[in-house]
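ok so i was messing around last nite and threw this chain in just to see what happens. nothing serious, just curious
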Amino acid sequence: MKKFLSIILATLLLLLLILPIFADGDTVVVPKNLLTDDQKAKLDAQQSAEKVNTTIKQVSSYVGLGKEIGQAVDGSLSALTNRANEFANTKVGTWTMWIVAYKILGQDAKSLLFYFIRLLIGIPVLIAGIIIWLNLYRKEFITYSVLISKDKMGNKTYEKVEPIIPDAKEEFSIGQKKFTYACILGLFLIIICLIFL
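result:
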């Protein structure tokens, strides 16, 4: 307890010795109501000037801070772009750039390539299938001419071939065969469109 009291007493003594150091000899504290109107005006002008100076100092410090931040960002970005450019010029950097480009554009390019391949295969298969179907349909249901002979003068002889007429023993009539051919063509078109187009 004795030590505690001695520490408190030493602190108070030091405080009393330090306070006069901070005191300003020209400072006088007077209540505001004892001042004259002229002194009050001077005091208000001085306080407003101090506020303006403080505000100007704060704004200029913010402007300086903004300028320093801008310079730091500019320096770091220029260093970053320079390093990235140096890296891109190496073999590893070139390979990395190809990988990044593939990751960004590769899936789109791959799907576009497969679409064109399907078109290049699908359109000829579709045309060939329609031609085969029309040929079969013509032989089954349409009367057509067949070249029989050609003489030395260039005269040609044709023979008309009637469509195959079903016998009475056949299960399908001509209407049913036409419907079947139409269904086969429709199914073929749907399959081609789903697979290739």
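not much to say yet. The chain has a mean pLDDT of 77.
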